[in-house]
Every structure is written in structure tokens, then in C-alpha cells.
Design a protein that fits this description.
Layout: H1 2-26, H2 31-51, H3 59-83, H4 92-120
């Protein structure tokens, strides 16, 4: 599961970082969106560092990304499916698969957040 979450986080890091750089290079009014995408890329980087045992892991990044991914998976899928026309019915499958992958990434992120939290707490006496 750790390897699967690493793959999801790496893909998310590459995608959001690339989109942020593309928006910044185009110019126009995409600065705020690029800032948000850059923040998501940075949180994914912190999450990757925390997954593989670096001391600088920030536990709230796990919870923020986990909830954001689940909301993206549910909300993004519903929004996209309502915007598709009947002629675009061939896109239903990929949209649902993307939503399911985002929900899976969010669930795995929250699972590892709980696992890291229990490891960080000292045992009760």
C-alpha cells in the first residue's frame, strides 16, 4: 500500500507541478490557480518525505491531502458527469476511474496519517 500511495503522490506531484509551471509561463489571470497547484505539489512532496521516513514530515499534510483528494474524487466526478453531454458518454468510464483513484489516494493518505500518528505518540504508562 505504501508503494501504491507513493505512485499516486508522485503522479500528483508531477501533474500539479507541471500545471502550475504551465499556468505561470502562460501569464494572464492564472496566478492564484498556479499558487494553489504549487501548494498541492508541495504537500505531496511533504507526504512523500513522511512516507519514506524523513524527519521533516508534517502530519497535517497527510490529513489536508487526504480530505482534499476524497473531496476531489467525489465532487470532481459528480461535477464532470453532470457537465458531459449525451454525445460524450464514452468519457464516463475514465471520469469514474479518475474519481475512484482520487478517493483511493485520499483513503490511503488518511490511513498512513493514522499510522504515523500512532508511531509518533509515546506508549501510555
Amino acid at each position: 500500500m505504501k508503494v501504491l500511495l507513493t505512485i499516486f503522490c508522485s503522479l500528483s506531484l508531477l501533474f500539479t507541478g507541471g500545471c502550475a509551471l504551465t499556468l505561470l509561463s502562460i501569464g494572464g489571470g492564472g496566478g492564484v490557480i498556479a499558487l494553489g497547484l504549487g501548494l498541492v505539489a508541495a504537500l505531496n512532496l511533504v507526504l512523500l518525505m513522511g512516507l519514506w521516513g524523513k524527519d521533516s514530515s508534517w502530519l497535517p499534510a497527510f490529513y489536508i491531502l487526504g480530505v482534499a483528494d476524497i473531496l476531489l474524487g467525489i465532487g470532481g466526478t459528480i461535477f464532470t458527469l453532470t457537465q458531459l453531454d449525451q454525445s460524450d458518454s464514452g468519457l464516463d468510464g475514465p471520469v469514474v476511474m479518475f474519481g475512484a483513484a482520487a478517493i483511493l489516494k485520499g483513503g490511503l493518505t488518511l490511513y498512513f496519517a493514522r499510522q504515523n500518528k500512532s508511531q509518533a505518540e509515546p506508549p501510555a504508562a
